[in-house]
Amino acid sequence: MPLLRFDLIKGRDKESLKKLLDVVHAVIVEVFEVPERDRYQIVHEHPADHMIIEDTGLGFKRSDKLVVLSIVSKARPKDKKQKLYSLLSERLEVECGISPSDLMVSIVENTDSDWSFGLGEAQFLTGKLRGD
Fold this sequence. Notes:
This protein is an alpha/beta fold. It has helices at residues 14-32, 78-96, 123-126, and strands spanning 3-9, 40-46, 67-74, 103-110. Helix 1 packs antiparallel against helix 2 (78-96). 12% of the residues are buried.
């Protein structure tokens, strides 16, 4: 946990995609202080005409390097979220060549009882995993 879903326009090569996923994971580990092996990432690739992601009137342009990142996670403090947005934007630009205007992030919060990692158990509730 957290669970990350990436919606991307088709066309990235394997190396670029791996770099994107690795950079985002490193930022999640750093900012949300999750274990290194707490990595759950799902990539959805779409034809360009299947993604209409505008700027909500903020005045910037999107490109074919657009990344829409949806994060499902326990509640996080506002300052951690802001740090996450900032570091993701900074590092994706430096390490992956993705403009800050091409990154959109949405966080959906849930609780320990909303997770089962397998075996028909809610491991945060059974005590097999810590949910703090």
